Structures are given as structure tokens and as C-alpha cells.
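Narrative of activities, Objective 1.

The group set out to show that a structural description can be obtained from nothing but a protein's sequence at a throughput compatible with the screening campaign. Below is one input-output pair from the validation batch, recorded exactly as produced.
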Amino acid sequence: MAKSEESEITTYDTSGRSLPILPVRDTVLFPHAVLPLTVGRDSSVQLINSLGDDKTIVVVAQREARVDAPQPTDLYNVGTLAVVHKVVKMPNQSLFVFAEGLERVRLTEFSQLSPFMRAQVETIPETIPPKNSEIEALQRNVLTLFQQIVAGSPTLSDELSTVAMNIEEPGRLVDFIASSLPSLSTSDKQDTLETTDVRIRLEKVNQHLAKELEVQQLRNKIQSEVQDRVQQTQREYYLREQMKAIQKELGEQDEGARDTEDLKTKIESAGMPDEVKKEALKELGRLSRMSPMAADYSVTRNYIEWLAVLPWNKTSGGEIEIPKAKEILDADHYDLQKVKDRILDFLSVRRLKPSMKGPILCFVGPPGVGKTSLGKSIARALGRKFVRLSLGGVHDEAEIRGHRRTYIGALPGQIIQGIRRAETKDPVFMLDEIDKVGRDFRGDPASALLEALDPEQNSTFRDNYLDVTFDLSKVLFITTANMLDPISEPLRDRMEIIELQGYTEEEKAHIAFQYLIPRQIEENGITTEQIEFPPESVSFIIRHYTREAGVRNLERTIGTICRKQARRLAEGKSDKLIVTKEIVTEFLGGIKIRSEGEIAERTKRAGVVVGLAWTPSGGDVLFVEANLLKGKGGLTITGQIQDVMRESMQAGLSWVRSNAAQLGVVPVFPGVFTTQSEFHDLPVAATLNENGTVNSETNRAAQGSIVTIFGTGFGSLSPQPVDGSLFDAAALPTLQSKLSVYAGAAADVLYAGPAPDQVAGVMQVNFRLPATFQYPPTMLMFVGNQPTQYFTVWIDGL
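Output recorded for this entry:
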């Protein structure tokens, strides 16, 4: 051992020596520290037992503590030269060794691996910075932080602060603090051991101390808060027990007992069935034995309250007066006679037999025809409470049947909740938009409605939350839908379908004057003395600004006009507003819907037929046009036609082709049913022979009917039959002021009058064939005021 004059630090001569290596787990031995080590591995025990007078060893930490037989690669390269002071044998054959660290050493070369490891080591000198104010400040800061940590930690002895204060050398102080901190990981301690520069070592330990102090302060804060809460809970418990003792001495009941008595009183007065009452009293008994702090206390209490507040035997409505009910229905709704008759029939039977089960009515119709408002009128006519539940977009079955009490926040289904809101067991319960009920992984609400809407089953309806039966047979369920198709067949079978069709223009006008206009005048803050709607203006609005089955848009349009008048009054214009057609156009803009003359105008031309499209929300008139032209015998269909319509058109054409001979249908164009002609959209059946004469088989059908004749070609002025070949429409000569139609050799006059206008090169004449007219005629033609203008014809409609 020698003493260096420059560093004033004791060093030990380790050159040329092979020292035994003691691997340790999760432990780092620092110089100048005495550390007790437990030695249990056979190799380590043999190492300690082999020591003679020289007790010097090298203590090195393992990289992985899980390795039981470490090799040189499993050890760190830097360890601590140590001397063994005392060895104590333990009962389990392990050794308890007290070793003192001397200095830092680096392992250079292993000379022995078994039975224990030996290696050549070299001393690692420390780099000691000169003493200055910065080093001193850093040393003091480290010491202060360490003292604060020791003072705030219940596991560290206060003597550690005293020992640290007596260490003057910064290097030894850092090693002492690093070895004393239990929160410092093995890797951090090893990093501190391998750092030879004292200044850097001080900075690293300072950072660890600052972090540890922050964590310790936060831990102490949390512990303090928890302790305060525990003390507050214990304090409340003691006070509550004292209160119970005082109330017992005074003969008073505590709050929990009073709550239990109140619930028992509600149960007794609720009029529950015996089975339900038994279940409620059972749950009440559990509640009385339960602490208010228990987790199930609020769940059980809410369940008992739900049972107690439901109207088990409360009914609404009194004696049913049929004339009064009819008066209410007529006052609230115009027309709807079929619906009113069905409701009055039900009320009449109910008057004669009060115990009858309520029917399930389903009002089906387009939006705005008064389905929901009709339900309100029924409730008013019956004198019952009205409850409405919208089923549009409902996907969860629990919305109908409720959640089981095992779920957090469980509640009964919407049907039971509606019964509770109504506070009676026989309200008018409207289930709106039943055709828009959804279905997904959470269940099928439509299937859950089967029990509620079945008069034979709903007397024992069981909600998942209540888990007891509730009688719904007295409830008058009314459902509404726009379409029947989305409703499942089993659910539709349980309901009585009543269809509400759309209103006509006259009905809308009556509704507007009787209901809509007075309501909009009142809602917009004006009076009947300030605005007037003439009948022709209301019809003008209905015809040109609203096209709907109901009256919602009509009411909105009337409301727009009323708001315009309210604005005029607010601007100081106090004169009465007469809503003329010009005022309507000014307030609502130009005409949006044009319907007059459209059918007559479009059907002037040949090959146009009128169809009707119908949906539950309304309909429209469709115009289907057909053209016949030369081609390959194909059928071309244009427009937004779906597959079913296309198949129908193709089937119709195929049927006509296959039965052309039996029907006597011979086309104007030769080969029209072969491959020489082509159809566009729907074909128009011609009823002339190939030479232009009328087919005799259609004589009876044509007699006394109105026939339309179209010019289709040219011929020569002679008694011979006229050729019916295709002609160029652009070459058709323009007729002048008059037109005559002749038929047969006797030149019977079928039509004489003004010449019609040409539409796309085709002229149309309507006339009636006489009953005595004989077929076939020699020719059938119509002539202008010039002798050379006459044509063969195509008769449509036979």
C-alpha cells in the first residue's frame, strides 16, 4: 500500500496479482463502504473458504441478476477492490460476509474460471477537480438534497445525514450517498461507480437526488390525502354511531330507518299484485340491513322506488260519451271518416264492456296526413293520458325491455318509463315510426315489441329491469308507419292496419281554412283583421307551390306568408293584406309546379301514353313515349327503368309478337315483327294491312269508337289501294286551311274541318267511325285543299 502525494488518496498495489472475483446480484459495492453480502452459490462459498491471510477480493456486479452461473461476459468490467473483515456461517450453509470497499478496479484478463473466477485487475485513478466555489456549491446542494430525502423517508435512518455531513471529500460523499439511496437502480449505481471524474459524478447524483425528492414529496402528498380521507371516514363513522346512540336514547329513528318506513308506506299504498308486493318487501328487507355506504345500496333503493311509483291500479278517464267523442274527432280532423268510424266502434264496445282488451291500431300513411295528431285526439276523446315514443333509429332491444340490474346505470325499458310518466295503467300509448326500427348485434327491437303488442300476452309483460310482470292489456297502443313493407310479418299480424291516404286539393283547402290558417295567424302574432286568404289563392298555393300527400309543406308555406305580413306590420304598414295570386308570387317566388295542360299538350303527338307512379308518400303522372323505326327488330328502353320494369316491357312485346296472328295485329311496315323494323321504348300496334287498308278482323272493335288517323305516306289519285311504305317525314307537304278524310269507293266523308298542326312531321285527326261502316274500304285517306295531297293512314287505338 502506498500513498500518493499529488492526490492525497490511498492506493493499493494490484499490479501483477490475480485476485478472486466475487459476482453479486443487484448490488454495487463502493469504495470506503462496508457492505454485508450473502454468499450462497457453491463457487462463491468456495472462494470465501479459500481465502487465507490475504482477504482481498474483487466484488463485481452481474449484468443480469437471473444468471445463476455467471461467466466473464455476464459481469461488468469495473468493480471494487475489497477486503473481507468477517464471515458468518448461516444454518442453510450460506455465508454472511462483511466486506469493505477499497478502490475502483478494472478487470483485464481472467486467469481462472473454476471452481471460481480469478482475474488480473488494474486500479482506476480518480480525476479530482480543484476546489472552487462551483464544486463547493454543487457539494452542498447534493448534501442538502440528501438530508431532505432522509428526513422525509421513513425507511432511511437519520444517522445517514450525520455521517454525510462529516465527509469532506466530494468523491467519498458522492459514493456514500449513491450506496445509501435504495431508490437508485443497479445500472445507475454501476454508472456512478464507473464515472471517475468527481465533478461529473456530483452532477449525476445531484440529478438523481432532485428526482427522488420530487417523487418523495408527491408520494407524501398522496399519502397525506389518503390519510385525511380515512380519518374523515372514521370520524363520520364515529359521529354516526354516536348519533344512533343518541337517537336511541331519545326514542327517535335515524335517517335510514325513516327512509325504509317511507318506502314501506309507498309499497303498501301502491296497490301492487301479491307477487310484486312480496318481491318489493323482500328487497326492502335487504335494504334495511344494508349500510348506506354499500355499493348496492343505491341500486336496491332505486329498484324499490320504481316498483313503488308505477301505477299498478291507477286508471284515467271516466264514462265514455260517444257523441262527445265524435265531436272531438270532427273538431280536430277533417274527413278521415273510416278512421273515425273505427275509433267510435271501439269506444262503443268499450262502453258496453269495460273489461275488453285494448286493440293494437296501426295508422299507415304518408308524412303529414295527421297520424300522430289523430292519436292525441283519441286520447282526448277517451279522457286518457297520452304518451308518445319514437322508435325511429332504435337498435337496442334493451330500449324496449330494459336493462338487467347487474349493469351500471340500468333502467327499465321505454314502455315502462312511459307508463310511469303517464301515472296511469291505461294511457293511449303511441309508438311512432314503427317501420323505421333498426336491428344489429344488440338485438332486434321489433321482436321485443311482439309481446307488448300482443293483446293475448301483454297482460304479463315482463321488463328485464323490474323482473316482475306488469299488465299492459289496458293500454291502447297506436302505432304509425309510412310503409308496411319494412314491418316484420309477425309484428304486422298483431296490429289492425288503418290506412290514411293523402288529401285531395279540395280536402287540403278545407284543412287550410279550418286548421292551418288560424293556427299560423295565431303563432305569428297577427289577427284575422290584418290578413285574409281568398279561396282561389289557397288553391293556387296548393296547386303550384306544394306537391305532397299531407299538409306540412302547405302549412309552412302559409306560415311564410304570415311572417311576411308580420314584417310589414313591424315596418309600419298597418293595412290589411289580401293574399292574392300576385302577392303569393311576390312572397314565394315564381311558380314551382306547372300541371295545367301538360297532359293534353304532351299527348298530342303519336306514341305517347300516360302512366301513374304511386308511392306511400305521393305519386306523379308519367309520360311514356314510343317510336317505330326501321332496324333489326330490337327493343330500346331509355330512362331510369329498373330491371322489373324492363322485364315487363320485354314480356309485353314478346306476347304481342307471339299472338300477332290471333289478335289481327298487322304492322304498317312490312316485316315489323321480323328483322326489318326496330322498336324504341313501347311499340304502337298498327291495324292496317300491308297495302294500307284496315284489317277486317278489327271491324267490330272499331265500330262506334273514336279513331286517330296519322299521315304516313304518299300515293296516287286513283281507286287503287294506296301503298303503305315508309316515307320521309320531312317531305310531308304542308296542309293549308282545311282537311277532309274519305274512305271507300263511295268516298264517305269521315272528317271535314280545319287542318291540325303537325307535330314532328305527323298530323293527328280524331273522328268517330259510323256503325254501318263496312270494311275493307277501297282506300282510306285524308286530303288537303290541293287535289294531289292525300295520304295513307295508320289507325291507332283499335
